[in-house]
Amino acid sequence: MLGRVNHIAIAVPDLAAAAATYRDVLGARVSQAQALPEHGVTVVFVELANTKVELLEPLGPTSPITAFLAKNPSGGMHHICYEVEDIASARDALKAAGARVLGTGEPSVGAHGKPVLFLHPKDFNGTLIELEQA
Ligand code: CO
Fold first, then answer.
1. Per-residue DSSP letters for 69-124?
2. Tens digit of pLDDT for each residue in 29-78?
3. Is position 85 annotated as part of the catalytic site?
4. Residues measured by CB to lie within 5 Å of ligand 1, the ion
5. Which domain does 123 fall in, by range?
6. How many domains in the chain?
7. If you measure from the C-alpha of residue 9 to the centroid of ligand 1, how many angstroms do you get, rounded to a whole number?
8. Which of 18, 41, 87, 123 can bridge 12 by disulfide, Cβ–Cβ 3.0-4.6 Å?
């Protein structure tokens, strides 16, 4: 079911500072900030040769990463995103295996304009998993 790692996401309290650290200290290429109000985050992508790192900052009062940052004030790894070929069939197979899909269970449109779903971290070793249709 799983293809490549599409990105690894890190929640950060200050997106501009985190982007500057990746650009200026680590010497990486970083994208412009992109607001995703429907996901409650603003994102910057660090573009690496083999994958991307997604830096996430809360956007709006009901951001899904606010509680995470309250527990991890300096930021921390938030989720890992794997590519799948067909998100609906992946979801159906995961649900049949007893895994919990977050939200309505219907894919939403992610940062790359492609359908995404999130899986409950308690079902996957404490890691929030995002699936993105490649
Ligand atoms: Co993501």
1. HHHSTT-EEEEEEEEES-HHHHHHHHHHTTPPBPTTSS-EE-TTSSEEEEE-GGGT
2. 999 999 999 889 999 999 999 999 999 999 998 899 999 999 999 999 99
3. no
4. 9, 54, 81, 130
5. 2-133
6. 1
7. 6
8. 18
